[in-house]
Input
Amino acid sequence: MKKILIILLLLAINLPTCAAEWVKIGNNLYLDKSSVRYSSKNRTYKAWVKEVKSKEIVLYFNEYNIKEKEWRALDIVTTDLKNNIKKRETPNSVGLTWVNVVPDTNSAFEYQEIKKQITKSPEILEKELRID
Output
């Protein structure tokens, strides 16, 4: 019995964590720096962004083309303030059109923070996004 408990404890210690690391990047706007991933297929970066509104929270899974200074939304999830999902827009309904980063907007704050994370954490290239 002790051996089983020790094995379970060791397995629990070695499990990866999925905790978000939200960094404030604008007024009611946050980037999960732990979610920043490089996609070698498109040479882009992907990350979760959270916008806190008065009655809801909107989570965006965005893709950023740093070289071209463009971005696009891949997934949009709207929750209530208790994190219950109210609505989800997937790539079929969101649209995958690249748009320019507009100065002094949320997209500009996101773009700058992604660039900052890439510069500070070169290991992001090692945390490449893999989709099977």
In short: The chain has three helices and eight strands.
